[in-house]
Amino acid sequence: MLLPLDVDRIRKDFPILQRTVRGEKPLVYLDSAATSQKPTSVLDAERAFYETANAGVHRGAHQLAEEATDAYESARRRIAGFVGAETDDIVFTKNATESLNLVAYAFSNATAKAAHGAEVDPRFVLAPGDSIVVTQMEHHANLVPWQEVCAKTGATLRWIGVSDDGRLELDDLDSLIDDTTRVVSVVHQSNILGTVNPVRRIMDRAHAVGALGVVDACQSIPHAPVDVSALGADLVGWSGHKMLGPTGIGMLWGRPEVLAAMPPFITGGSMIETVFMEHSTYAAPPKRFEAGSPMVAQAVGLAAAVDYLTELGMDRVEAHEHALTGYALERLADLRGVRIIGPMTNEDRGGAVSFVVEGLHPHDVGQFLDDRGVAVRVGHHCAWPTCRRFGVPATTRLSTYVYNDTSDIDVAIEGILAAQNFFGV
Amino acid sequence: MDVESLYQDIILDHYKHPRGRSLIDEPSGESHQVNPTCGDEVTVQVSLDDDGRLVIGYEGQGCSISQASASVMSEMVSGAAPADADTVRQAFVELMHSKGAADPDEEVLGDGIAFVGVAKYPARIKCALLPWMALQDAEAKAGIGPDQEGTSTS
Asked: Could you report the per-residue pLDDT of A114-146, keeping only the tens digit for each?
């Protein structure tokens, strides 16, 4: 199969892909939905920052401080550009989980402040009778924070169901998202099912009833061209480490008017405007949401990752993974006793393919794949309710990226056959 | 290191043919343990019979290692005095922390010795320990301690 990306050349950029595992077996990395590997240019960028420009940012009267600040803010500009955003509409967080918590806490914090008569934007104040809508395919990071908000405010959690073929059940969207709904937070591309959801339609419905719209874009932005402002959302969160960047950095994009209306989440240094003993006022976004010393080297590394992806071309990255996903779906569908959990077809679908093998627990499947050097994820993928929806305790998930080709899928298929053979199922 | 050293025949046999796998009526203590990273689940129930020996009930779902371990656990401690069961449990825990270098004592561990290979795979140790953690917790809830020796032990 001729793939859009030159995988042999790309693999040379990733030092970790040169190593062997479990004896002398070449590493076959099919776990990029958990975290991606990092090209040399990302590692070099971080190292170069520490070697030449490391200093505290946004303070200090010395040259290094200026250069570090410039590196940090230049990174923000490049990362914003990658998703079609304005620079100041990008907030750096430590990961996507923090980005989504930042949003959830805007609601519970505003509600708590309003109870004491503080002036807050009423869009963030919740009360019993209000509803919050998510989906049945959320990562725990876009579910548990909303459960907490409901527990603190008395609001009710609702969710859009998932069909047997892993798609959102949108027929009753208009009754689920009604005039009690204050916020709708949905995943763009499911980390467990691979489904790409029609977020624009859901966000439009949210806005039609006056609710705020939030999108978890962790699994979409690394794998396809995404213009965050075109999703129709008010707020979009995602992480850096799944898109060839370092760990320790996530992003929250927000419409500037919405970010400006949100109370802070983590408070302390760097996020203030003025501080008195009795009270403080806060900086404008994005700084309002970036308390404490920021993750400067990680931002620099992520900007290098964004440059790398831009050079590959996100259209080609998407086409490459689409072809690989189609191949994986075909090969898995041919296996006796294998059930794909998620869409069987390759339309509106990303490169995370979950499956269960009849008579085998995913842990045992994963162990046989590992024995052949294949790294996959087994378990509930932080989407336990989604597993329950499909009546399985866990799945095995293979997930692709720019450095994978069909031979990687082939090795995984051989591993599944070996496990079936060994266990006699 | 290869995967077949992990899945010894004894483990596969317990996985495919679990011993004593059922729940009991009116247990004195019960513990439900889950491995939140992979969704393995096991419930262990305990009570004492008239001779002060352990009666064990269990059920669960999960990987071959966790479910075979539950079967071995049931086989080893059912009918044992709490003190003896505790000796077996401690030996099993020690085996799991041996990084695969231990020479387990079949006299103490019975079929549990087959799990020596599991200790070489850090991600699987928790699977193997899950039923034993449930046993310890169920005993604690039932107020059954290792100092209770039953009527006779040998």
From this structure: 999 999 999 999 999 999 999 999 999 999 999
The Cα–Cα gap between A401 and A83 comes to 18
Distance, CA of A340 to CA of B108 (rounded, Å): 43
Q: Considering the entire predicted model, what is its pTM?
A: 0.94
Q: pLDDT tens for residues A97-110?
A: 999 999 999 999 99
CA distances from A388 to A253, A367, A394, B78 (A): 31, 23, 9, 32
Does residue B147 lie within any of the structural domains? Answer: no
Given this model, what pLDDT does residue A111 score? 98
Q: Does A414 contact B at CB distance below 8 Å?
A: no
Mutant choice from B4, B33, B63 vs A, greatest count of A C-beta within 10 A: B63
In a domain, B44, yes or no: yes
Residue among A364, A370, A387 whose CB faces B63 most closely: A364
CB contact under 8 A, B41 and A393: yes
What ipTM score was computed for the predicted complex, to two decimals?
Answer: 0.87
* Of B39, B63, B64, Cβ closest to residue A387: B39
**Cα–Cα distance measured from residue A390 to residue A200, given in angstroms and rounded to the nearest whole number:** 26
| A363:B1 CB<8 A | no
Contact B38 A423 (CB under 8 A): no
Query: Is B153 part of a structural domain of the chain?
Result: no
Q: How far is A384 from chain B (nearest CA, A)?
A: 8
Mutate to test the interface with A, among B16, B32, B38 (most CBs of A within 10 A): B38
Domain boundary among A249, A283, A309: A309
Helix (H) or strand (E) segment spanning residue B127: helix B122-142
For CA atoms A251, A255, A258, A259, give the dihedral sign.
positive
Where is the domain boundary, A244, A278, A309? A309
Domain holding B83, by residue range, is 3-142
Give the tens place of pLDDT for each residue, A206-254. Answer: 999 999 999 999 999 999 999 999 999 999 999 999 999 999 999 999 9
The three-class DSSP label of residue A216 is: strand
Q: Which residues of chain B have pLDDT under 70?
A: 1, 148-154
